[in-house]
Write a structure and sequence with these properties.
Blueprint lengths: L3 H7 L3 E4 L2 E4 L5 E2 L4 H11 L1 H4 L4 H45 L6 H16 L4 H6 L4 H25 L2 E10 L5 E11 L2 E12 L5 H14 L7 E6 L3 H4 L5 H8 L5 E4 L1 H10 L1
Parallel strand pairs: 4-7, 7-8
Antiparallel strand pairs: 1-2, 2-3, 4-5, 5-6
Helix pairs in contact: 4-7, 8-10
Length: 275
């Protein structure tokens, strides 16, 4: 088998491209790197058109076609990079909107502002702004993707952690529905991460057993190991701290290891301020 350079020297107009053989003239990939296949492709499709090219003219033609291929690759690469940048901008704007609690429809307003800025400061980037999508549907999808990413990252941290503790706060929203906020603090190699694990609406009673049931559901939902639970912090509500049927009492009884319990210092300060 001759080398690929030998084929080029003979003028079959082929190059190696992405682990395959590419014809420079028709840009068709040749399935098998064999002399017979390459010669057959050349003779049946291109011989009548380029056999007349001889010597330096033929070499110049091969080099020109190579440059065209390289130019196309650079064009596709630049377009891909521009698309990736536009997507990244859209995600970062969605993150900023969600972080500040702004309406999802504000994305279109942000896009208009970016258009004004780029038209004055950097007109060559205006096309990139026009490519980005900031409709409320897109922003909502980006926020969902960010939330899923954070959740997956948190689950990985919890799986790899040595211990974790939970903080619970039960309150009522404007629609008179009880909301149980579950916070988790993860420690690994002296690194501490604290995140909101779940927000559980409770449409029935809010007894210690109801809260215990919601927390157990969170264990299953996020694949938490009860054996790694080392601490509980609550707001001091009777349903959470009751001696017999409170959530803390039920949780301590349900796990074999010792759990350290705390009354949230912020709620204690609030009670002191009221008195």
């Amino acid at each position: 088998m001759s080398s690929l350079q030998d084929f080029l020297d003979c003028g079959f107009f082929v190059i190696e491209h992405n682990d395959s053989i590419l014809c420079l003239i028709c840009q068709e990939k040749i399935a098998v790197f064999k002399e017979y296949n390459i010669k057959r492709h050349y003779s049946t499709k291109h011989a009548t058109k380029v056999d007349c090219l001889m010597g330096q003219v033929r070499i110049d033609r091969v080099n020109s076609l190579k440059q065209n291929i390289s130019g196309q690759q650079l064009l596709f690469k630049a377009a891909n990079q521009s698309s990736e940048a536009a997507t990244k901008i859209s995600v970062l704007i969605a993150k900023a909107i969600a972080k500040r609690g702004k309406p999802l429809s504000d994305g279109e307003f942000v896009k208009d502002c970016l258009g004004i800025f780029t038209s004055v400061a950097c007109p060559d980037k205006k096309s990139m702004v026009e490519k980005t999508s900031h409709s409320h549907q897109t922003i909502a999808r980006r926020v969902d993707d960010l939330a899923s990413n954070i959740q997956d990252s948190l689950i990985q941290r919890v799986d790899a952690c040595q211990f974790y503790s939970l903080g619970l706060d039960e309150s009522t929203d404007v629609s008179d529905t009880a909301q149980l906020a579950i916070f988790i603090r993860v420690t690994k190699n002296f690194e501490i991460v604290e995140e909101l694990l779940d927000l559980c609406p409770i449409n029935r009673t809010t007894t210690g057993k109801d809260i215990f049931s919601e927390v157990k559901h969170a264990f299953v939902k996020f694949n938490l190991s009860e054996g790694k639970l080392c601490g509980l912090t609550t707001d001091g509500a009777p349903s959470l701290t009751g001696k017999n049927n409170g959530f803390v009492s039920l949780m301590v009884k349900s796990v074999p290891q010792e759990i350290i319990t705390h009354h949230c210092i912020i709620h204690q300060e609030q009670l002191c301020a009221k008195t």
